[in-house]
Write a structure and sequence with these properties.
Number of strands: 10
Helix content: 40-55%
Strand content: 15-25%
Oligomer: single chain
Radius of gyration: 19 Å
Largest sheet: 7 strands, mixed
Number of helices: 10
Length: 261
């Protein structure tokens, strides 16, 4: 049945973190959600987790999407009722996830979840600000990012906190679209570095040649390489011919430069 007020008792310690993760992930598999719940120590038993997921699904707070891309099992996304409940509880969400939650975007979200989990399991991740929160900040406040990033990531390296905007491009935009993005990034004041992860080398070259922001350093790398090597991944610097620079070195330099200002 659909969710009606009073028909389900919500556990702040167990149900709310799961609902929040579903919303912030866009789309997620049950395996991904269980890993997230293990990492934030809100769930230890897979049996209990599966029961919780079925219960939230049955009450209409989560919805299920069948036939996910590349042989993945069914995936889950937040319902309108679930999002409304989280908003009532103070979730930073103004109604936009960051891109359409349609079939064509499903693989995008699942890949980002894999990257999020890889950074967390490598004990590098301090904070992952999801697209839903970035969109809310951009829509409702004057303290705006230059664009709706897929995430803003804070990592720890060499005892420092380092932040960067993250964009994942599975398919190309037009040259003009990337030039408009470059113009927007010239107004960025909240991050010093933006990392574009791409699906193939030709798209990497396209973004390298199109996005040459003067305000932030834009780095480009292959998604598959970054998923494996994380901060040690060699990147290209957009607008230049510089390549094979470890991303960690880029972040360290940006942090040192910011510390001297």
């Amino acid at each position: 049945m659909r969710y009606e007020k009073g028909t389900i008792q919500i556990s702040p310690a167990r149900d709310v973190p799961l609902l929040q993760q579903v919303l912030r992930s866009g789309f997620a598999t049950s395996d991904q959600l269980y890993e997230f719940m293990q990492l934030n120590q809100s769930e230890r038993s897979r049996q209990a987790f599966d029961h919780r997921l079925r219960r939230l699904l049955a009450h209409g707070l989560i919805e299920k999407h069948q036939g996910a891309a590349r042989g993945r099992p069914q995936v889950y996304f937040i319902s309108k009722e679930g999002a409304s409940l989280l908003i009532d509880m103070g979730e930073l969400f103004a109604g936009r996830i960051g891109m359409e939650t349609g079939e064509r975007s499903c693989s995008h979200w699942l890949d980002l979840n894999d990257l999020h989990l890889a950074l967390a399991k490598a004990h590098m991740l301090l904070r992952w600000t999801p697209a839903s929160e970035i969109c809310s900040q951009n829509d409702l406040t004057q303290f705006k990012y230059a664009k709706d990033y897929d995430a803003v990531v804070a990592v720890e390296s060499e005892g420092r906190e380092m932040r960067f905007g993250l964009e994942y491009e599975r398919t190309p935009k037009t040259y003009n679209a990337y030039r408009r993005i470059a113009s927007k990034l010239d107004g960025e004041t909240l991050v010093d570095t933006v990392l574009y992860l791409v699906s193939n080398y030709h798209l990497l070259c396209m973004i390298r040649d199109c996005i040459a922001s003067r305000r932030v350093q834009v780095c480009v790398a292959l998604f598959a390489e970054f998923l494996e090597s994380l901060l040690a991944t060699p990147v290209m610097i957009a607008g230049t011919m510089q390549r094979d620079i470890p991303f960690q070195a880029i972040l360290t330099h940006a942090s040192q430069t910011r510390g001297r200002q």
